[in-house]
């Protein structure tokens, strides 16, 4: 058996195509704040702005020096909150080491109406209610759900096992899968006998960022394998999953690159359109 390859490209293309007319109507503007020069962040931001150009979305890059202080970054967040021309903004993570411990506080400072990353307590909290309240869900988990839907992979009643408990992927993905009727197990770095859990997965989602940590013996034959982790080996992007070997036993698998990545970008842009639409409703 060779797995069905779940390419994110056609799914993201379809989503972006559907956004274009909405962008024309609502004319949103996305701002990305970057502190320092983390190469991975620079590459993600380039992808995000390329997609903005593709759908005609206005965008702005606030690129700050790596030694920007907490107060300076807080002031910028405040300014973007107050600027009525800014529909949504994100602070690209990770932040430099001196700011990293303050990440939760900085995220809390973003106006929930402009929190197009969906990382703040208000938007995360709403997700807990039901699918109907996932207004600004975090882009990566949202992309995973869209990918599963596009390829008609059922979620309800399935056992989804997530490896990784980050606030931006693992935890919100668990909630979104629960909202859709999956039985969800979340594993992480302290989980004992990890493969005992991963082998039970109908849908296995790996979101750790550790190259090829999910090996063939950890996967149930016929499972759907979603690779969300990204790392680099000799400059080459690789996922958390040993793709070459696991594709022989899985029923479906996402590649890295070209799987979840393009979906994340498309879902971020969709959030920005949603933000602007809501802002216009409130301020006719
Ligand atoms: N770093 C890696 N992924 C993300 C993301 O989705 N949003 C932000 N702000 N930073 C990230």
The CATH superfamily title of the largest domain? NAD(P)-binding Rossmann-like Domain
Report the order of strands and helices.
EHEHEHEHHHEHEHEEEEHEH
Measured distance between first and last alpha carbons: 56 Å
Characterize the largest beta sheet: strand count, sense, and whether it forms a barrel. 6 strands, parallel
Total domain count: 2
Structural class given helices, strands, pairing? alpha/beta
Write the CATH fold name of the largest domain: Rossmann fold
Architecture (CATH level 2) name of the largest domain: 3-Layer(aba) Sandwich
How much is the average pLDDT?
Answer: 97
Give the CATH class of the largest domain. Answer: Alpha Beta
Strand content: 15-25%
Radius of gyration from the CA trace? Answer: 19 Å
Q: Which residue ranges are poorly predicted, with pLDDT under 50 across at least 5 consecutive positions? A: none
The number of helical elements comes to 10
Strand order, biggest sheet?
1-11-8-7-5-6
Tell me the number of strands: 11
Small ligands present: guanine
Described by the principal axes of the CA atoms, the overall outline is globular
What is the percent of helical residues? 40-55%
